[in-house]
Design goal:
Length: 258
């Protein structure tokens, strides 16, 4: 559970739940089917500046009716949000396919301006990949890029993980090579992530040194700097190759990684 950021960016102490369970409820109608969620107004607005602007603004009709519709929001991530709102905890993913709903919840948290929830989700996903010794697959990174802007914490975590994966690999897997050729922003972000490691010069091979092979060692029978591995490329290290369901695939658009 992450501390709630204050308006000036500093962390503020959390109020206990019982202080936020006011008698006033608001009625939220979510998704195309208008699923009804009666929630405590004070609790909701304490965590979400978005909802505070809806229900605490006297010029807004919803501040009087205590009703608000979110037809563009899917029900599943909103239900996860409600669970977090009252428990201030997330259930960690048991397998890679559980990452998808957490990403949808992350995008919802961004829309509702709930920084503490965003932080909790990033930490939960980071811990899953670390504890299982896996890395985000290309489709996961594409999905994040399609639904976030630059300078995003989830992007940074995903790209930082991929930077390590590709740096430690003997060669670049074919699907990653194709993606990097098509999307310059992803390539730039990976280089930026490596720069943030602040490696000492002695730790990095110098291609100007006559003793350096410049990447032309033979890897698995192939020779050449530009070799792309069509199979797996790292021993004892796994990258998750999840199959995209139709719902997630539909979110990968022109703004994402090609």
């Amino acid at each position: 559970m992450s501390p709630e950021p204050s308006q000036n960016g500093d962390e503020k102490p959390q109020k206990p739940l019982h202080e936020l369970l006011s008698s006033t409820l608001v009625d939220l109608y979510v998704g195309e089917e208008n699923n009804h969620y009666p929630l405590h107004e004070k609790l909701l607005c304490y965590h979400s500046p978005f909802f505070a602007s809806v229900f605490y603004n006297k010029d807004n009709k919803s501040s009087r009716t205590k009703e608000y519709g979110l037809p563009e929001i899917e029900d599943k991530p909103f239900a996860l949000f409600v669970g977090w709102l009252y428990a201030r905890a997330l259930r960690g993913p048991e397998e890679e396919r559980d990452i998808g709903p957490l990403l949808d919840l992350y995008f919802l948290a961004s829309k509702l301006q709930i920084k503490a929830l965003e932080t909790d989700i990033v930490e939960t996903i980071r811990a899953f990949y670390h504890d299982n010794e896996t890395y985000p697959g290309l489709r996961r990174v594409q999905y994040v890029y399609a639904n976030t802007d630059e300078d995003n914490v989830m992007r940074e975590m995903m790209v930082g993980s991929v930077a390590r994966y590709l740096t430690l690999a003997d060669s670049i897997p074919e699907h990653w090579a194709n993606a990097l050729k098509k999307n310059g922003q992803l390539s730039v972000d990976i280089i930026r992530s490596i720069q943030q490691w602040h490696l000492e010069a002695r730790q990095v091979p110098d291609a100007r040194d006559a003793s350096v092979d410049r990447g032309r060692n033979a890897f698995k029978g192939a020779v050449g700097f530009s070799h792309v591995d069509e199979g797996s490329s790292m021993e004892n290290v796994k990258e998750e190759h999840e199959e995209e369901d139709d719902e997630e695939e539909s979110h990968v658009n022109g703004n994402g990684v090609a």
